[in-house]
Design goal:
alpha+beta, 5-stranded mixed β-sheet, about 45% helix, about 375 residues, two-stranded antiparallel ribbon
Length: about 375
């Protein structure tokens, strides 16, 4: 791991390059400047291969490769998104960022007085790029990169997008339908349903989709508890990190968050439609949902009808649509959010036939805790 450098001190990186008193022109950060300041800035375009936001985390092969480099360098990585290749080139030449993390053809890089370096393909003649006066960063990136890192990144993405990435027990979806008992937490769903502004069975359906009623569930992204709240969301709802696995505190914070989401969707007048949009935001984020609404309006659909908007949720995985000027948040894994809304609604329909009287775990309505199916906590996987 690299150490920060003094004014006249030189260090050798793990990849054989020397960091010391080098200087660059036009305010461009040298490699030692990046290390000293603790941050590297990359330029790229939103796409499934380059970069996209997924539940508050960056993904995309090129981004994850650059993140590996930043971690090895001991610095954080900041992403600046551009609309096209020319914008990336112009901003890199102005010194707005340190590296262009995009498979740019080598001949185009040379024509724009940039240095091809880092991840890419020699046979295809495409690589990342840095400014001509940042040779040391270019050499370090090239010495660092190994093709095996691509498989490492793909294995990580495969893990994240599989069921293995969520640590949880999978409990039965209904404890006792005849007695009106869905879960051990029905009393909490009933208590906080009015806060959320929904039927308590909708909270139950959402909880099962999120955690399978495991109050200790945790996802790869850090979402926690019955309702799979991100720590930042929980904190914004007044829930401390130490209480995030407490079932009542978790449900209460989720109910507040759902109410907040409904408030941001006040322009969706129909209550049933608003419920669909709320579920989509809970899973995919308000920004992506608003992008889909903007596309729906642009192409002549009804931006307040889920059957119309959901089609553009799916289309946000296609370049023609996620690169559209009305789109602000770029590429989206739309199939996940599309299916999420459908699955929660389907389970809600099933739960709606359950009467559900007042219930608490201490009442022993079922006489025992729910029995988990054969599923337990998987191994952890990371890029490290």
């Amino acid at each position: 791991m690299l150490l920060s450098c003094g004014d006249n001190e030189k260090k050798t990186t793990p990849w054989g390059t020397v960091v010391g008193d080098e200087q660059t022109d036009d305010g461009q950060f040298s490699l030692s400047d990046i290390i000293t300041n603790g941050e590297m800035i990359m330029l790229t375009i939103s796409s499934p291969d380059n970069y996209y936001d997924y539940h508050g985390h960056g993904f995309g092969t090129q981004y994850l490769l650059c993140q590996l480099f930043a971690k090895d360098l001991g610095v954080t990585l900041r992403v600046e998104l551009c609309k096209d290749t020319l914008e990336m080139i112009d901003r890199l030449k102005r010194g707005d960022a340190d590296v262009m993390v995009f498979p740019l053809p080598d001949d185009i890089a040379k024509a724009h007085q940039l240095i091809s370096c880092g991840a890419g393909s020699d046979s295809l003649g495409v690589h990342w790029a840095v400014k001509n006066d940042n040779r040391q960063l270019a050499d370090t990136l090239t010495a660092w990169y190994q093709p095996k890192y691509v498989k490492r990144v793909h294995d990580y993405e495969d893990y994240v997008f599989s069921d293995r990435s969520v640590q949880r027990h999978v409990y039965q979806p209904v404890i006792n339908e005849a007695r009106g008992v869905i879960s051990n937490y029905d009393h909490l769903f009933q208590r906080y349903a009015s806060v959320a502004g929904v039927d308590w069975r909708l909270l139950a359906a959402l909880a099962y989709q999120e955690s399978c009623f495991d109050p200790n569930a945790k996802s790869w992204a850090g979402a926690c508890g019955l309702m799979q709240l991100m720590p930042s969301t929980a904190a914004a709802m007044g829930l401390s990190g130490g209480s995030i696995y407490n079932p009542e505190a978790n449900v209460a914070a989720s109910a507040k968050y759902i109410r907040q989401l409904f408030a941001t969707l006040s322009d969706v007048r129909n209550a049933d439609e608003r419920l669909n949009f709320m579920l989509a935001c809970y899973n995919g984020g308000n920004g992506h949902v608003r992008d889909a609404m903007a596309l729906t309006k642009k192409y002549g659909g009804d931006p307040y009808r889920w059957s119309d908007v959901s089609q553009f949720i799916l289309k946000l995985s296609e370049p023609r649509f996620y690169q559209d000027p009305v789109v602000k948040f770029g590429y989206m894994r739309g199939t996940e959010t599309y299916n999420y809304v459908a699955l929660v609604r389907q389970r809600y329909m099933k739960y709606s036939g359950i009467a559900g009287g007042s219930y608490s775990p201490s009442s022993g309505a079922s006489g025992m805790d729910p029995v988990p199916h054969p599923a337990s906590r998987p191994h952890r996987f990371s890029l490290d």
